[in-house]
Specification:
The protein has one helix and no strands. It has 141 residues and is mostly helical.
C-alpha cells in the first residue's frame, strides 16, 4: 500500500565512489596500432572467384512435427527473371496438384460416409437380432 519495499541504506564510510582500475603512464605509447600495408607479389585478381559449377545435391537438416514433407522444387540462382519464370511454373503445378488432392479427398470422404452408413445399418440389424433372441430361455456361450 505504501509502495515497493526498499531495504534500509547503511552508510559506508570507506566508500570512495565507483571503482576504476589504476592508470599507469606508458612512455613508449605511440597511439593506436595500425597494421602495415605489405605488397603481396603472388596476388592476382580473379573475377570468377565466386563462380561455382553446377550443384547436383543439397542437404537440409529439418525438424518436422509431421513426417512426409517432400522438397523437390529447389532453385539456387542469381538470375531473378529465370527464378520468377520457374516460380510461376511451380505455382501452376501446385494449383493442379491441389485440385487433384481436393478431388481425391472428396472421393475418400464420400467412400467413408458410405462405409459409415453401411456399418450403421449393420449395427441396427444386430440390435434387432439381439432383441429377438431375448425371448429365448437358453444361454449362449
Amino acid at each position: 500500500m505504501d509502495g515497493e519495499w526498499e531495504p534500509p541504506m547503511v552508510d559506508n564510510p570507506e566508500y570512495k565512489g565507483e571503482w576504476q582500475p589504476k592508470q599507469f603512464d606508458n612512455p613508449n605509447y605511440k597511439g593506436r596500432w595500425q597494421h602495415p600495408e605489405i605488397d603481396n607479389p603472388e596476388y592476382s585478381p580473379d573475377s570468377n572467384l565466386y563462380l561455382r559449377k553446377e550443384i547436383c545435391t543439397i542437404g537440409f537438416d529439418l525438424w518436422q512435427v509431421k513426417s512426409g514433407t517432400i522438397f523437390d522444387n529447389i532453385l539456387i540462382t542469381d538470375d531473378i527473371e529465370m527464378a520468377t519464370e520457374i516460380a510461376a511454373n511451380v505455382k501452376n503445378t501446385q494449383a493442379g496438384e491441389r485440385k487433384m488432392k481436393e478431388k481425391l479427398d472428396e472421393e475418400q470422404r464420400k467412400k467413408d460416409e458410405n462405409e459409415q452408413k453401411f456399418s450403421d445399418s449393420e449395427d441396427d440389424d444386430d440390435k434387432e437380432e439381439i432383441s429377438e433372441d431375448n425371448g429365448n430361455d437358453h444361454d449362449e456361450l
